[in-house]
Design brief:
single chain, 346 residues, TIM Barrel, 8-stranded parallel barrel, two-stranded antiparallel ribbon, 45% helix
Length: 346
């Protein structure tokens, strides 16, 4: 497949329309979180309150339509439609990597969603390796151009190693986080891209002042897998070896919450049950990407709305059965950790 950045974005959309890019053996381990049923919930379903505050804005439900795309004509339609849905339903919305916008300013319009989503909590997105070589002023301009409320500064070394045109020098990442935290006027979210955030990295980020993290753990879409399907030769071989590389989402949530971070659980979140389990581990919000995209492809905006409505209703039902009337109560709900997740936590 072509190494042109615009074509790469089109490749990503085509590949993520299928389940071929899922992790092959590793799961999120959210199935190892068992919520405890309460036969006397003492709550009314209609009064279950799913509201949360994230980055200074109130969300009607703890959901983020997570970062997917940009930099291609098809990406514009997806971003605008899904951002509009996030706005009307009171969710957050994440833009895909703005690397294409930085390299080709003529693609900026594919990231611009403010007209369709004037009130949405909008997350910009730049790779830490690219940000290392950009001035803070240039990054601030990119964020202002799309009206982003915060910056997801993403870490993706595994993906880059497989990507035919990827970076190979990952020095200076922590210093870049520190510089942008000090110099930008918007919050910084440390974001992985499918391999999760370790306890050690979460602690380092917290120590320099970063307080928000997006886990993007292993178990959902393997972005190493996506790039493996695009790669040839040695890149393809290393991609096959690393397809399932990463820290499962549930373990990453545990590490990040333990480090004192406000945690967005992404990476293989597919249902209200997944959202509830992540919140019970301490996450403040959960993000869904590929499943929303596939629902949009199958049924347009109405298909995406129906999918998200089902996630919300399932979450509210589980909250009731846990005796949790608010998200804060669900974060404290009794639960049992089983299986491999217990090993990761130990």
């Amino acid at each position: 497949m072509s190494s042109d950045i615009k074509q790469r974005k089109a490749d990503h959309l085509d590949l993520c329309a299928t389940d071929e890019v899922s992790f092959r053996q590793r799961t999120t381990l959210l199935e190892c979180v068992r919520l405890v049923h309460q036969s006397l919930p003492e709550a009314d379903f209609d009064s279950v309150d799913t509201r949360v505050r994230l980055l200074g804005k109130e969300l009607r439900a703890p959901l983020l339509i997570a970062a997917m795309t940009g930099g291609h004509e098809r990406a514009a339609e997806i971003n605008q439609a899904l951002a509009s849905i996030a706005d009307e339903r009171g969710y957050a919305f994440g833009l895909g990597s703005q690397r294409a916008m930085q390299k080709r300013p003529d693609t900026a319009w594919t990231y611009q969603v403010r007209e369709q989503a004037p009130d949405v909590l909008l997350l910009g997105n730049v790779g830490v390796v690219q940000a290392r070589d950009l001035s803070s002023k240039a990054i601030a301009k990119m964020l202002a151009e799309v009206g982003a409320d915060a910056l997801c500064l993403h870490m993706n070394p595994a993906m880059e190693l497989v990507q035919p045109e990827g970076d190979r020098d990952f020095r200076g990442g922590l210093d870049t986080f520190r510089r942008l935290w000090e110099e930008l006027d918007r919050p910084i979210i440390a974001k992985e891209t499918g391999s999760g955030v370790s306890r050690q990295v979460a602690d380092k980020l917290h120590a320099i002042g970063i307080r928000h993290v997006d886990t993007s753990g292993a178990g959902g879409t393997s972005w190493v897998g996506v790039e493996t399907l695009r790669a040839e030769g040695r890149g393809k071989a290393i991609g096959e070896a690393l397809w399932d590389w990463g820290i499962p989402t549930a373990a990453s949530v545990h590490y990040c919450v333990g480090a004192g971070m406000t945690t967005i659980a992404t990476g293989g979140i597919r249902s209200g049950m997944d959202v509830a389990r992540a919140i019970a581990l301490g996450a403040g919000c959960a993000g869904i990407a590929r499943n929303v995209y596939q629902a949009f492809l199958e049924g347009g905006s109405e298909g995406a709305r129906a999918f998200l409505s089902g996630v919300e209703r399932e979450l509210r039902s589980i909250m009731l059965l846990c005796g949790a009337r608010t998200i804060e109560e669900l974060q404290r709900a009794p639960h049992v950790i089983t299986g491999e997740l217990k090993d990761w936590i130990d």
